[in-house]
Hints:
By secondary structure, the chain is mainly alpha-helical. It has a domain at about 115-204: Orthogonal Bundle (Annexin V, domain 1), CATH 1.10.220. Helices cover about 90% and strands about 0% of the residues. The chain contains 8 helices and no strands. Helix 2 packs across helix 3. The longest helix is centred in the middle third of the chain and has 73 residues, at about 70-145. Pfam families: MgtE_N. Keywords: Coiled coil, Membrane, Transmembrane, Transmembrane helix. This is Magnesium transporter MgtE intracellular domain-containing protein.
Amino acid sequence: MDKNIELEEKKQNKLQWFLFVILIPLMAAILFSIVILKVAGVNVGSAAKDLGVKLPGISSLMKEEKTTPSVKQYQNKIKSLEASLKQEKTKIAQLENLIDSRDKKINNNEIEKQRLEQEIKELTKAQEENKRAFKDIIQTYQSMSPGKAAPILSELSEDEAVKILSNVNSESLTAILEKMEPSQAASLTQKLTVNMEKEQSGTE
């Protein structure tokens, strides 16, 4: 029992010795140093950080603190990504507009092509109808008596008369010219000769 009391007393004595001899003087010295440094104008927080960086155990903790991204850094990163996304969306919209414009142009070209094809068909049809009508006119003049055909052709312009006479057969041509006034028959014959020479020179 006495031994236990003695051990307890020894422990208390050691603790008291540690407090009064080491800990309290150390804390007093640190506090005194901080007061002195502040009076001297030294930034105690910055100095403590610099000291902490040099100490092995504390420096690793401070480095980890520095390398850990802050909320503000995450927010800045999100803003940057949102800006990039907005730019990409703008580029996509521009490309879509370009594609729409090209599609419209292609569609307009296709419509214009169809319109021209239709116009060509109509002109070809009209030309064929005109050819058939002209053949019918020639056939009519050939079937008419020269005495009836001659006065009608005399009323037409010489160019129209020449066009018709150059397409009737030679028998009908001779008979119709015989029924015309000699001066008119001579003029038409001259023009028919010129046309025949042009056609012959064109075929050679």
